[in-house]
Structure formats: C-alpha cells, structure tokens
Fold this sequence. Notes:
This protein is α/β, with parallel strands linked by helices. The chain folds into 2 domains: 7-184, Maf protein (Alpha-Beta Complex); 214-384, Rossmann fold (3-Layer(aba) Sandwich). The chain has 13 helices and 16 strands. Strands 7, 8, 9, 10, 11, 12, 13, 14, 15 and 16 form a 10-stranded mixed beta sheet that branches.
Amino acid sequence: MSAAKGGLDGLVHCIHASRTVAALVLTGGGTGAIPLLLRRPGGSRTVLDVAVPYGPAAVAAYLGEAPAQACSVETAEALARRAFQRACQFRGDGSLPVVGLGATAALATDRVRRGEDRLHAAAFDGSRTIALEWWFQPLHSSRQAQESAAERAIVALLADAVGVAPWRELAGSHLASARRSGEVEDDELAVVHDGTQSWFTAYPDGRRRPGGQIPTALVPGSFNPWHEAHLALWEAARRRFGDPVAYELSITNVDKPPLPSAEVLRRAAQFDSRASLILTAAPTFVEKARLLPGAAFVVGADTARRIVDPVYYGGVEAMHGALRELRSLGSRFVVAGRLEHGRFLQLRDLTMPSEFAGLFEAIPAGELRVDVSSTELRAGGPASG
Length: 385
C-alpha cells in the first residue's frame, strides 16, 4: 500500500484499509494523532485501545514499573510492547493481525526542563520493533509546531507498522535531526507459528509486516522453488482483478510438519523485488479465506480437483459445508489448465457439484496453461531445463 499521493488523509485512509488493528499509548505529547485517526471514517477498524498516561505514576502503572527515564527510546519500546499485549487481549477476533505503538515526548514548555525537545516512538508486532527518534530545533519551534510534527510522525510510524509504504513528507524547519532504527526478534516468525499473528505480508522491498491490505487475488503455493508458472498465474490474476495481487505461502501443512522459519524466509526471499508474499499458518482454503475474506484464489486444475474431492474433507457433507463457507466469505477460484501425465487437465474436465459451479471460473487455455511444477523442478525433470 502507498499513500504518496494522498498526503496525511491518504495515509490514514491506507491505515484503515489495512486488516491490522492497533493499541496506542502516548505520553508527553503527540496526542493529536488520536483524533487524526479517529475523526476519519474507518477508525474503529484500526484502533482497539488508546491510553494517555501523562503523569509519572500513570506511566509506571501502565508499564508495571517506573521507567529509568521518562522520555527515551527504551521507554517508547517498553510502551509499545505493553500496547501490543493489550492489542492481543482486546482484538477478540484472532484472525486480525495486531501491533502496539508507544510514544513518549518532551516538547517545548513554559518551565525549566533538562534535555532537548524530542520525540521517541516505537511500534512492536511480536516479530520486530521499529523505533523513531526526533530532536527539535530549540529556538525555532513552538509547542504547537512540535505537537503537529509529533502527531504526524506517530501516524506515519503506525502506517509503516501496518504495511503502508513509508511516508517521507514529515520533516520541516523545526526538525533538527532524526533517527530510525529497528530490531528483529531471534525467530521473527514465531508469532505466526504460535498463532499470535495470523498472517504477515512480505513486501517486494524487503519489509515484513503483520496483516496489510487484503489482496484482490492470491496465488497460493509452496514455492519450492518459485517458477515461471507461478508468475503466469500472478499475471493472469492481475489482468482479471487488478492490484493488489499477492502470492500466499502457508508455513503449516495438513499432513506435513510446519516449515522451519529459516526455510520460510529462504522461500520468501525469492519474491524480493518481485511481488508481495503473504505468510500464513492456514493450510486449507477455508482457513485462508477466513483470514482474507473476499480474495479470489488463482490455482491450477489439479488443485481445483482436490478442492471438490470429498476424500480431502472426510465426506461429501463436510466438503459441501466447506464450499458453502468459502462462498459466504466471498471466495472464488480462477482455474488454469494444467499438463498432468501427458494430458491437459482443465476445469471442464472436473466433476463439479452443480451447487458450487459458480465458485469456479476457467482461464482459457489460449491465455494460460500450467506445464511446470515445483515438484518437477526439484526432481530435475524435463521442465527444469
């Protein structure tokens, strides 16, 4: 997602278009970020909880202990981690990705105060911390100007944390210097493995953020390796549905052990500078659709055949129940023909329950056919040459 053309309003719109929800805690300044988020339509989709513990005792109560320094990057990070815990507690729907944002400021005042005018803010998603530090010009910046800059910085940090392309139009003449930093947890995908985060988006520029905008269409796969047929499916999806289209990789499988984080990241690296990849722990299409309602799935005919095979559900009634749920979630399947054992398999070759025929749409063979698979490439078969 990008807000480059919409300014601050566009930035907030993109935040609210994200599937990610947030808890915020602000102290010392920058509280104008709250109305910036809430006075625009969609605020309730994003904001779960807001706290403004202004006095030292209130900050200590929020954190569970008094910070070593009221206004520091360490305190901002501690606030963000506590806000993240509250977001997990209050989200209700476990399919919603979450972030916590904490900010502490020491801005222009009418009393004597040691230290520079500054803002420290951090966002935490269980996987990584993003920190922002600003120092203001002491003699050329009013409290009003600093408050305005701080609230915009907080909104921009939240946007970055939920996957909106970083917004650069923040600094003004009142800003003396700034620093942005980040820290990744030892196992950054542990929160997906343990269910704390339902899905992450790995963006082409290398960023990985929880949730994000639900794509118009998804190309699911194991991507071991990614190959030209995957690209063809992705391009077909873009022609039909427009952006954003993403690939999807589940770190769990119905009948295999979960993929280790290192292996997931290795596969995800194939998409750097190419396209977005959504990482889930959703091995079935029903589970994927619950996380990403309304998205279409672009698949090969061999996958479509499994989707309408009762064997994979434990019976016809269970299959019908799953397909009805997929329909209620706004899902549909766009199916490409697939060369299989010397025969070209198409959607029209499948035995399709009439009740669910409307869930499936064929890609004409003249537009696209899938004649290669990751399995064949790993085996070094004819398609790998």
